[in-house]
Request: fold
Amino acid sequence: MSDTIKVTQMTLQTPSKNDYLMGVNSYPMSVRYTVESLQNVLSDPWRRFESTAFYFSPTKIRISNDYTKYFITGTKLKVVQNSATKYFYVLSSQYTAGNTYINIFGGTSYVLENAAITSLNLSYSAAEFSYLNYTPTWSATGAISLGNGVLVGRVSITGNTCTTLIKFALGSTTNVGTSTNWKFSLPIPSSSNTIHTLGTAIARDLSASTFYSYTPFILNNAVDIQYFVRNSIDTNYGISYNTPFTWATSDQLLINITYEI
Reply:
């Protein structure tokens, strides 16, 4: 038996053209369908948003009227500009003065250009992309420079939680000096509602073939990861040029933390 479902010429009250976006349970009781097949709709997690979207800034999209109920935190967007497909996460949306403003995050993977948006699609499921790249910032008390070292990050957002992965590797020209209180910037600040969030981290001393396990933690409204606890009696709460070892070329710090945004 074919899996195809065909519905034809059911003419009832016409809904808003974007009403189908929130799923079957949000359909109005009276709808108008002229559907040749529901098979593609059921298998494709992306839904085209029919209202025209406009560039507002590199991190914001504008749409006339109130559509905030569709653009909730964690919604995935597929945007087409100049024939190029780009992917973004929705961080939030606000309705102001007749317009919906959608705050988006593309990290360093995708940039919203000051150009026409020819297609806007939404997904509330894990579709086509998960992690986006971002570039963390390394800061400290004291002089430092990354030089030819490596500092990269990856970001995945599900609902109002953000998972962040960071890799920091020293190069031959990286300067740690006598710096203390190392910090690594988050891609998105933590929520004001966050009590605390614990993650995992590994510091690798290449020359000694030794690994040190840390628990990084952040508090509410955090913009950095700066607290690293190695054990229950650790009073240092941080990483520095000589903690947990004297850092040198090819040593690494790997961080994984999931927190509320």
